[in-house]
Amino acid sequence: MKNYGKYSKSYFMPPVPSTNWVHKSHIEDAPLWCSVDLRDGNQALVIPMDLDKKVEFFTYLVHLGFKEIEVGFPAASETEYNFLRRLIEDDLIPDDVTIQVLTQSREHIIKKTFEALKGVKNAIVHLYNSTSLAQREQVFKKSQDEIIELGVLGAKLLKEYAEKEEGNFRFEYSPESFTGTEMEFALKICNAILDIWQPSKDNKVIINLPSTVQVSMPHVYASQIEYMSENLKYRDHVIISIHPHNDRGCAIAEAEMGLLAGAQRVEGTLFGNGERTGNVDLVTVALNLFSHGIDPKLNFENIPDVVHFYERITGMFVPPRQPYSGELVFAAFSGSHQDAIAKGMQYRGDHQITGWSVPYLPIDPQDIGREYGSDVIRINSQSGKGGIGFILNENYGFDLPPKMREDIGYTVKNASDHLNKELKPNEVYEIFKKDYVNV
Ligand code: KIV
Ligand code: ZN
């Protein structure tokens, strides 16, 4: 690891780093959510979804409670164009759901985007152009002023095209590669776009600040969000949206700190699908809020179903240690953990407790459709009499006396040790039956 000298240590901190948000310990309310599964998520799949899968995914996102869903970049591919037409023509978009479409700042692309949107009731048209130093110098070969001109041109075109249509259109602007952009310049270009769109109480505009590539520690991103939140024009009529990617593994931290720092909306995907290391995982952000007693306003009551659906449609895999959703994230194999959970549950049963405080369980797994018998108490050579007794009681109704529990506990543990495998409840029962049940 000799080449570390070529990486920069700090990325465009705001001119006056402001960190009021660090004094807050909780997010007080659910943000607005926007699913970008069908766009950012889809564009990163080995095999992008076909039209039918997209329709199925869209319907599922609606069922999960998403009210804003980015459905694609309709000018970029025929499938995306046809998908949007299908949603509109087959009347598949509920009245309380707003679809979002992505566009670049080029007239023929904007024209095609509005063609694809014909007949839509509610839509957010999402304009982006890249603003970072690296993109300006290496890719676009444009000065700061030329990049502003490009963004402003797109903003004007969006306004002109939307005025000719009947639907209810709102606008979003993303300075793509925001985290690699000098903050004064990011502010300048966003304010120039806002001057064109003239946000008002009835015409709120979304400014989306992506960590297109995550390049700094999460508190730096949060300070950038706070700087924008404190300095943007028309602030009362602007919704600040964040769009963390996960290159440094900090997408959740960026989302939570970004919300503390003034953001009101989060764009992300189920389980963090998306470009490279992915977008922020909205399941985790939402359930982290839930674990703090805040209604996330998304329906994650049946996480196993969400996992199953996602894996089937995307061909991706939810890792076993994915927060809240992975197969092993509530599992207690070890005897001391099993014992503490059993005692915690017993204590809960015996006392009037308002909050959730059972040891080793961040939330009640049952709240998201997970089961104690199969997801929590799992038996292998590390397990204890408490866990084995729990399995026999929960699944087979044997409430064993302490001495017998201890005895069968040792027998089952030893069997798992010798076989070198986990024992499922029916296998525990078979061992129990052989030694203790007269048949
Ligand atoms: O990551 C990103 O910057 C994007 C933009 C198009 C918002 O996906
Ligand atoms: Zn993105």
Structure description:
Helix 4 (107-116) links the parallel strand 3 (98-103) and strand 4. The longest helix is centred in the middle third of the chain and has 21 residues, at 144-164. The chain has an 8-stranded parallel sheet. It is built from 16 helices and 8 strands. Helix 8 (218-231) packs parallel to helix 9 and helix 14 crosses helix 15 (402-419). The model has no long low-confidence stretch (mean pLDDT 96). It has helices spanning 37-43, 51-63, 78-89, 107-116, 133-140, 144-164, 183-197, 218-231, 251-260, 282-291, 303-314, 335-350, 372-376, 385-396, 402-419, 425-436, and strands at residues 32-35, 68-72, 98-103, 122-130, 168-176, 205-211, 238-244, 265-268. With 439 residues, it is an alpha/beta fold. The site of zinc ion has 7 residues, from loops. 3-methyl-2-oxobutanoic acid (KIV) is lined by residues 40, 102, 128, 174, 176, 208, 210, 212, 243, 245.
